[in-house]
What we know:
This protein is α/β, with parallel strands linked by helices and 267 residues long. The protein is 54% helix and 13% strand. It has twelve helices and eight strands. Strands 3-2-1-4-5-6-7-8 form an eight-stranded mixed sheet, with helices on both faces. Bound molecules: NADPH dihydro-nicotinamide-adenine-dinucleotide phosphate (NDP) and (2S)-3,4-dihydro-2H-pyrrole-2-carboxylic acid (A1CAB).
Amino acid sequence: MTVAILGAGVMGETLLSGLLRSGRSKESLVISERRPERAAELTEKYGVEVLDNAAAAAAATTVVLVVKPQDMATALGEIRGSLQPDALVVSLAAGITTTTLEAGLPEGTPVVRVMPNTPALVDEGMAAVSPGAHCDEAHLAEAEELLRSCGRVLRLPEEYLDAVTAISGSGPAYIFYVVEAMIEAGVLLGLPRATSTELVVQTLYGAATMLRETGEHPTVLREQVSSPAGTTMAALRQLDDHKVRAAFLTAMEAARDRSRELATGQG
Ligand SMILES: NC(=O)C1=CN([C@@H]2O[C@H](COP(=O)(O)OP(=O)(O)OC[C@H]3O[C@@H](n4cnc5c(N)ncnc54)[C@H](OP(=O)(O)O)[C@@H]3O)[C@@H](O)[C@H]2O)C=CC1
Ligand SMILES: O=C(O)[C@@H]1CCC=N1
């Protein structure tokens, strides 16, 4: 069984490294990349073979498309003539629907649409998978297995995938944004930058671990921190006054809408 990863940028390399960590041999993986210098860097780092898109597709039982949505039509055109008859095609691209993928591939090709995220780099990824029209249980299980190598996987109807993209796909960026803001606040309050960074990162790690391990609702956990007439309520009141919660809702609607736009191939 050979897996081809087409487009080994941030997300493609993340998946490649996860598959290797989970025990797949480098002989069972091939990659393709547009820029020769990037291809050489990946061969040097991981020892996997780099082929062009058509040759990589011809060599693989599973082809994973990790190019940008705007490059998807070109990539599909490059592989459609060389796919093995039983090949499974898995797309990690935001927005691109299974209908669009199927239309660009030979009739009857099984396709799975996936939305992963970058914490897969530390085996804490969150991915959702949705089957296309020609996809059976074995195909879906194979796609889940790929993503489970570096995190958790949920099976969802495709109608949810634009929302998933807005929440967990883009989600790490929102968290890093909040972390940046808190570190800056610590510096504003006079803390050395390294101290502020350590305080914020460990607080995030601790809070995330509490959410997962206690199973408590975040409201309960937030209330436990908020002493009557204390410091936390003073801060949270400011966040409410500045409509931070509303801004998060609007931001994620915008991400969902952008995912829908990408489906139509808008640059
Ligand atoms: N980054 C993330 O957090 C997430 C990304 N995704 C999805 O993953 C996909 C890739 O995103 P990301 O890794 O961030 O983007 P990158 O730009 O880092 O990676 C895409 C890579 O594909 C290469 N490429 C483009 N066209 C082709 C082609 N025809 N054949 C082979 N390689 C090609 C690009 O080369 P070049 O540099 O020359 O353009 C680039 O190296 C996107 O569809 C995105 O929606 C999904 C979830 C999370
Ligand atoms: O920003 C993007 O379009 C991609 C998809 C989800 C995360 N990154």
